Amino acid sequence: TQGRDSKTRRSLLLERKLHTDTEIMRGIPLKNTLRNCGRMWRQSPLDMTEDERLHLWDVAFPVKEFDVFISHTWHTKGIWKFLSLSLQLTWIHILLWGLGAAIFCEFLFFVDVLPPLGNSGEVNFRTYQGTAPLSLWAVVGECTCVIPFLLAPWMPLAKQRFAFVDVASIHQVDEDMKERGIYGLGGFLKASKELRILWSPPYLTRLWCIFELAAYRMANPAGKIVLQPLFV
Q1: For 53, what's the count of Cα atoms within 13 Å in the CB-facing half-sphere?
Q2: Whole-prediction pTM
Q3: Which DSSP symbol is given to 117?
Q4: CA-CA distance, 166 to 181, in Å (whole number)?
Q5: pLDDT at 2 over 70
Q6: What angle is formed at CA 51 by the lines to CA 178 and CA 163, rounded to 5 degrees?
Q7: DSSP H or E segment with residue 137
Q8: DSSP label at residue 47
Q9: Per-residue pLDDT tens for 67-84?
Q10: What is the pLDDT of residues 39-53, one digit of tens each?
């Protein structure tokens, strides 16, 4: 009986810790975190002014659930998180843009709108012998694929994905709200469809990161866990 009572108490305690505090649930569109060259990732809230930290709460929106919970450590430089997330959101745009730009540049070259770019080369094909200009315009066109990468925060997406990002989803100024947010992490994890780990070497050395990983699997057994290495 005593063992059963102890198990019941643990279950009640766990249920309380996994309660979702919907009053303070706020998510931010993932692509919005990339604005200003990913300043939200590059600058720790400890290095921000009070007004800047308050603004982080204002750019988030009330939500009922999170499409993705971003788990990361501030011991890794934010520029890597910005680059990784930008590439993940825009890779299809980069691919299509680069292919389209290469084809378009080559077309302009073949209709003599663009001049030859490169030296002429000897061509020997069956009965034909002669010289032909070499075109590097396809390479030039492909280089422009950096444009959609830089425009990641404004790229059209099939679906807007709201993310839990600690600096925006937990109030950074009001101490009572911050405490509610920290103690509500279990509930936020429970309300997240996906846990995305921005993995870097220090990740598993941080207690908060290990807690988020373990708590997500406990609170959301059917949830999706995505490992996104920052250096790949």
Answers
A1: 16
A2: 0.81
A3: B
A4: 9
A5: no
A6: 50
A7: helix 137-143
A8: G
A9: 999 999 999 999 999 999
A10: 999 998 888 999 999
